[in-house]
């Protein structure tokens, strides 16, 4: 099991450009207030220039049917259009599209989500969602749903400041609303649940039915692909308390090579007697497969 290479590809480089620009601005402060002010003014001039260019492009796209839609669905262009208030889709449409993109992943963990309303108030928009699912016995599955929805909404609509979770109906299998309340941050990769997203571009080469092990930021995990859907779990069997290295996938069942226990990977890793594998959120972020891992205790303090 090899650690992930650290060389980012072009799809992952641009999404960290803001951090790199801020680092450069901070370093300019060492040259004194005048140098720092000139650097900030330079960035503002560049941003205003490409913003004016984007505005011109969107105006010209009106003469070409479908072009504005193509621009809006490109991850990089969509993020720039959002910065300048030029995105052709309103908040509700962007949130609904984002939820549609993660709905297959939610289903793999026995959950679903419905967009109830988007309420605009001073300071930002609040999204009201109804969560349902069948993984109440697996708290880590509820966390995967929270992270998946929070990340999708944050990326598609940075103006959203909060998510209000409402139980769709009083059923026994509804995921507890309080476990899914999340404050959506408008920047950064760290979420209120204390997890960080790590790009794993190698997952794109995983074939249907294959299982692969990865070591990401010191955490051993197992990834299997069922059809077009990649699913990630912590490399640990809850029955024999050992590694799952060498496990094979038969349809949707992942068998522990040591104790032989079968776990259903499309039902949040459910096993016999209420046992569960520990699922980890795995989503496409800006076109790159990425996994969310809990931050070490004390990180960011």
Automatic annotation (TrEMBL):
**Which stretches make up the Rieske domain?**
197-291
In alphabetical order, the GO MF annotations are:
2 iron, 2 sulfur cluster binding; iron ion binding; monooxygenase activity; oxidoreductase activity, acting on paired donors, with incorporation or reduction of molecular oxygen
Q: Spell out where the chain crosses the membrane.
A: none
Q: Which domain of life is it from?
A: Bacteria
Which biological process, per GO, is one annotated for this protein?
iron-sulfur cluster assembly
Decide whether keyword Metal-binding is in the record. yes
Q: Supply the alphabetized keyword list.
A: 2Fe-2S, Iron, Iron-sulfur, Metal-binding
Q: Which Pfam families match?
A: NifU (PF01106)
Sum up the protein's function in the record's words.
Answer: May be involved in the formation or repair of [Fe-S] clusters present in iron-sulfur proteins.
Name-wise, this protein is Rieske domain-containing protein
């Amino acid at each position: 099991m090899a650690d992930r290479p650290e060389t980012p590809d072009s799809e992952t480089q641009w999404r960290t450009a803001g951090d790199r620009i801020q680092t450069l601005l901070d370093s300019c402060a060492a040259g004194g207030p005048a140098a720092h002010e000139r650097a900030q003014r330079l960035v503002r001039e560049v941003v205003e220039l490409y913003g004016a260019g984007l505005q011109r492009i969107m105006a010209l796209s009106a003469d070409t049917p479908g072009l504005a839609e193509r621009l809006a669905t490109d991850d990089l262009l969509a993020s720039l259009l959002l910065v300048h208030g030029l995105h052709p889709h309103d908040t509700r449409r962007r949130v609904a599209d984002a939820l549609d993109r993660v709905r297959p992943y939610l289903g793999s963990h026995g959950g679903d989500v419905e967009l109830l309303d988007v309420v605009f108030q001073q300071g930002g928009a609040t999204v009201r969602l109804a969560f349902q699912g069948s993984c109440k016995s697996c708290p880590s599955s509820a966390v995967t749903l929270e992270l998946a929805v929070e990340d999708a909404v944050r990326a598609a609509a940075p103006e959203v400041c909060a998510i209000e979770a409402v139980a769709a109906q009083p059923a026994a299998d509804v995921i507890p609303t309080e476990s899914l309340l999340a404050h959506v941050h408008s920047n950064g990769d760290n979420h209120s649940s204390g997890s960080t997203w790590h790009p794993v571009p190698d997952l794109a080469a995983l074939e249907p039915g294959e299982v692969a092990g990865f070591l990401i930021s010191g955490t051993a995990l197992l990834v299997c692909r069922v059809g077009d859907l990649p699913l990630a779990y912590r490399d640990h069997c809850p029955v024999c308390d050992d590694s799952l290295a060498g496990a094979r996938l038969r349809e949707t069942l992942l068998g522990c090579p040591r104790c032989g226990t079968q776990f259903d990977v499309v039902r949040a890793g459910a096993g016999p007697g209420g046992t569960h594998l520990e699922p980890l959120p795995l989503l496409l972020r800006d076109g790159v497969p990425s996994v969310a891992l809990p931050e070490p205790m004390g990180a960011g303090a």
